Amino acid sequence: MKEIFFIPDKSERDNEITPNDIKLNQLRVGVNNKKYFTNEDCTILIVFNEEEYICPFRIRNKDGKSRSYTIQIGEQLMNLLSPNKNTILEFHKIDMKKYNIIK
Length: 103
Hints:
The chain has helices at residues 19-23, 74-81, and strands at 3-7, 26-29, 42-48, 51-58, 69-72, 89-95, 98-102. By secondary structure, it is mainly beta.
C-alpha cells in the first residue's frame, strides 16, 4: 500500500522550506513525517519526473535533541523542484527507502 505525505507537513506547525535549505540543497523531515522514514543514516532513492536520484538521508539526533531529519537532494534536483517557503511537495512512499515526489 502506497503511503502519501507532504513535506513540509502543514497540518500542524511544522517546517517550511527555508532559503538556507535551498542553499544547502536539503529537505527537512519534520516530526509528523518521521514515521515514513528509517531511523538510521542511509541513502534513499527519490523519483521525480521518472528520473531517479540517490540522496543521503540523515537523522541528526546524535546530540540527544529531537531534530528534523534531512534529505540531501543535491543541486540538480533542488533546481528542478525550485521550491520556495510556500512550496508543499507530495511524497509517495514506494518502498522502505524509495519515494516519488509530485510537485
